[in-house]
Amino acid sequence: MTPAYDSFLTLLHRRHSCRAFLPDAVPGDTVTAILTAAQRVASWNNTQPWMLTITRPGETERLRGVMTQAAQAAPPGPDLPFPERYEGIYKERRSVCGWQLYDAVGVQKGDRAASARQGMENFRFFGAPHLAVVTSPADLGPYGAVDVGAYVMGFMLAAEALGVATIAQAALAPFADVLRRELDLPEDRLVVCGIAFGFEDRDHPANSYRTTRADLDEVVTWRG
């Protein structure tokens, strides 16, 4: 293999969903470098449909309070439909991932109060100093959202290369109307997800585990 491949594979293995951040702000030039790199992501017909609204620490703290309060009530609903169900291997993988987190932070099976408290960390952005809300034009429909998904991965890998931790947050999507109101997002854009980012709290137990990946023979079919 090549040094470039080795470096890329290292980034993929190092990147993980950070669930506890230090409060320190990420320097502006580092954020700009992440955005500059992510802007090179491929998109359908080079439409580059993503737009980001990024909060600095003071605004993040304000939004943290708003989202925590909003999460106490029933969410208005996402702009894009969530999965109808998880079945089979997808349900199994989801369950394993969830229990890895619960085991790491000491949530016992059946302790609904503890699991609810951990779930609320989503709306605190896990203590991150920054949140990027990523949107796509409504007119581009699913393909715009697919392009945004590629962008999110580019953003997270660029951040990892610069020592910045991230977590993509679909949990915020059902509160699209709240985010649209609080961040003055245009009505003609769909809220796809958030990306909380900052510096990882390496001592926090929520960051002590890593998920696995399926073997290639589970996801690849060869023909010819």
Descriptive keywords:
about 220 residues, alpha+beta, NADH Oxidase, globular
The biggest sheet, with number of strands, parallel, antiparallel or mixed sense and barrel status, is: 4 strands, antiparallel
> What is the CATH H-level superfamily?
NADH Oxidase
Strand order of the largest sheet: 1-2-4-3
Helix content: 40-55%
Distance between the termini: 25 Å
Strand content: 5-15%
Q: What ranges have pLDDT less than 50 throughout 5 or more consecutive residues?
A: none
The structural class is alpha+beta
Strand count: 4
User: In the CATH hierarchy, what is the architecture at level 2?
Assistant: 3-Layer(aba) Sandwich
Note the total helix count: 7
Shape: globular
